[in-house]
Amino acid sequence: MIKASGKFSDQLNAAFADRNCVTVDIGLLQPADPFLETAGEDFRRRMFLTSDQSGTNMCLRPEFTIPVGLHHLASGKIPVRYGYVGTVFRQRAGEAHEFIQAGIEDLGNENRVEADIASLLDAEIILRKLGVGNINILLGDQAIFKALLLALGLPKAWREKLGREFGDSERLKQSLVRLSDKTQSPATDLPGDLAEHIGADDSQAVTRWVADKMRASGLPLTSGRTPEAIALRLMDKVELTSATLSDEKRNTLEQFLAINAPIEDAAKIMAEFEAKHNLSLGPSFENLKARLKGIASSDLADCTIRFDAAFGRRLDYYTGLVFEIYADGENTRPLVGGGRYDHLMSFLGAESTVPAIGFSISMDRLERVVAS
Amino acid sequence: MSFTIAIPSKGRLKERSIEIFNEAGFKVELPDDARSYYGNLKQVPGAGKIEIAFLSASEIARELIAGNVQMGITGEDLAREEIADAENYVDFCVPLQFGHADVVIAVPEAWVDVSNMADLDDVAAEFRTRHGRRLRIATKYWHLTQNFFGGHGISAYRIVESLGATEGAPASGSADIIVDITSTGTTLKANQLKILSDGVILKSQAVLMASKKTVWSENDLAIKQTLCVGIADILAK
Question: The complex's ipTM?
Fold first, then answer.
């Protein structure tokens, strides 16, 4: 494995230089908190954790995007394209826990469409250079589904819930069924005086009620959920218990999620969908169309590219284009995973939004493809 | 290799474990020296020496999983917390109808808008945007919590390890909600916490367990069978 990565690393470093990337060195031992805070507690199960003498949680580098982002914030240069290659440690079912990842992170380019296309080209050029013959690219869009939920005029609580589930088709399907269930009973077992305040639509009284309850329980009023936030959500929830998702809207959502088309047809099919349902999907739709057109007419020659409207990543820092690249012969696990993650740098402490897109290649999977 | 059964070394769990063996017609011989951690189990037909090891309840779970003892009595919650796929390590032979306790998710009663996991999912998702940090859960049940929340598709939270007085964490500000064990719910109530309607992670009780990670001779298997049948019979009466 080490020798093989050495072989590839010359080619990779040459490719990084060709693609105007700065190579970056990231330590093997990393503080664990940034990974757990951004990716969530579920990621802990896949990491290799340890702690230093002061009790700080440390981990073996589980991926590069977050440490590259932190490195970028510390150096403060904008915009930069970073290239990296190195070992990562991650618990994967049926695959080695120690493997090589390589990738490019493009940080700070405000021309998002241009950067999106460049990122796909980066990946394609590197895969070709390393000897991958067949390249199948799967595209999704993290923003367009949220735009559709908004265009359909769904309540905020539903939009947030469904938006969160985007990318997990089973869960999403269940939620659509549940929201359109007309037999659901309003589950309210609220104390009488609180129910009265809600009935009177008196948000201040509800907030006071919650604040009193919190004080009586000795709960801090400011460091966690506030009385205002709890009162607001409660009133929204009570209002929504009697609402159901109409069959028409559910149909529209299901038709959207079923869109899966070759890149040449994707923009046209999306436009037909928008017209048929008389929707106005706004700027994220224009963005998507521009991107699809750009990709269709780019230099991504001899690649099979599909757009799948239901394809997404369930990490809340992805914001736009997401993609995976597969090679023939190993169509179960992708060689490359990538996407636009405009929220990540703010999560990591940037004061304003930093446009960001990148991808990583699993070099062990690539090696198997190239060898076969 | 001798046959070893590990049972809890103190409290109600110890008393009930001894009682149940005795009621089933076996005889637990306590060590002469009160400081010793080893006794014997007598009057088991066809068996040679059976050693009783008095250990802490969580140590019993670990020893069963490691295959260092043949059998043991401990809480199901402890075995399942110790390892994700506990069924592959431990045979849950006979539930003993004592030591009942549920591992539950409890939130402050003041969270009047949160009554189930779907609500908690909403709250967890918006937590960082609103408060600049993840929702924090105090618990000693890392694995059970991760599995249960994972099963509900919730990952936007952090676990704060708590090794005692977990129910005080929300009020002290060290966590927002808790995952803890409760038998009657009175401690939760006293701390003005409520259990989510679908927030019972595990209904646990003391169980007579057998290790799957030790070598079982024909004779050992016969002993296991005798003990399990004897105790199951007495519980069925």
Answer: 0.83
